[in-house]
Amino acid sequence: MKKGIIEIEGMEFYAYHGCYDTEQIVGNEFTVDLKIEADITVAAETDDIYTTINYLEVYNTVAEQMGIKSRILENVASRIVDSIYERFPGVESVTVKVSKKYPPLGGKVRKTSVTLSC
């Protein structure tokens, strides 16, 4: 078995997550980094795109979840992980990092992030 790690890093979204009502109206910039571990033996040996996890489908899955408003990043991260497991049965583990750029914390903060591994 060849265990592979597929990473999609720096996905950028404008979304409406936040605990303050204003954040859910105005929105903010977010980034998502995703790491998926899976058995890639067949794909590595056959060079057949249909035997691996489709990166575009993964991106679309993340984008779909980013489009659903949440109050906290923990909820967004959890939904992303759950949806990856639902749509890609060969996945062995998922790590997702969801970051909000320039959160309204009363001072200069570049970003806040939540990382979830399951």
How does this structure look, described?
It is a single chain. The chain is 33% helix and 36% strand. The chain is an alpha+beta fold and 118 residues long. Strands 1-2-3-4 form a 4-stranded antiparallel sheet. The longest helix is centred in the C-terminal third of the chain and has 15 residues, at 73-87. The protein is elongated. The mean pLDDT is 96.
**Tally of individual helices:** 4
Radius of gyration: 16 Å
Estimate the global geometry from the Cα principal axes: elongated
Structural class: alpha+beta
The main sheet comes to: 4 strands, antiparallel
Helix content: 25-40%
Question: Beta-strand percentage?
Answer: 35-45%
Number of strands: 4
The residue ranges in which pLDDT falls below 50 over 5 or more consecutive positions are none
Average predicted confidence as pLDDT: 96
The SSE order reads EHEHHHEE
Major sheet: arrangement of strands: 1-2-3-4
End-to-end gap: 21 Å
